[in-house]
């Protein structure tokens, strides 16, 4: 945790040093930092691109395999076997009608 504070202190010191530069020096610093900034952006874009390609590869491999396996599996719903002589009746609850009366307490 102390390293975080050390790095933050260094950042604040650098920020203070850059803010005291003359107005013509700040664009020079930006131009010098531009290749590094572009590399960071490119690596982030490549990381996202690699992630999307890996998802696509995952789908390209698994979806046909899933469909192939589904060809050989029965599509019946699972049934519970009951002991002989017992029957089960599934009955849904009857619907109740609810009468609602809205009373307006404001006479206007």
Write a compact overview of the structure shown.
By secondary structure, this protein is an all-alpha fold.
Secondary structure layout:
Blueprint: H1 2-19, H2 25-71
Structure commentary:
The protein is mainly alpha-helical and 108 residues long. The protein has helices at residues 2-19, 25-71. It is flat and about 95 Å long. The two termini are 66 Å apart.
From the structure above, extract its key features.
mainly alpha; flat; 108 residues; 60% helix; 2 helices
Secondary-structure-derived class: mainly alpha
Q: Could you say which overall geometry the principal axes of the C-alpha atoms support?
A: flat
Poorly predicted spans: none
Give a count of the beta strands, DSSP E runs of length 2 or more. Answer: 0
Radius of gyration: 35 Å
């Amino acid at each position: 945790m102390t390293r975080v504070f050390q790095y933050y202190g260094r950042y604040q010191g650098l920020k203070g040093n850059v803010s005291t530069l003359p107005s013509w020096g700040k664009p020079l610093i930006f131009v010098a930092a531009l290749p590094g900034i572009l590399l960071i952006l490119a690596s982030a874009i490549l990381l996202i691109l690699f992630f999307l390609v890996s998802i696509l590869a995952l789908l390209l491999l698994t979806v046909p395999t899933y469909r192939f396996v589904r060809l050989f599996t029965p599509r019946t719903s699972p049934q519970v076997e009951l002991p002989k002589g017992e029957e089960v009746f599934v009955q849904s609850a009857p619907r109740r009608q609810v009468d609602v009366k809205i009373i307006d307490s404001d006479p206007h």
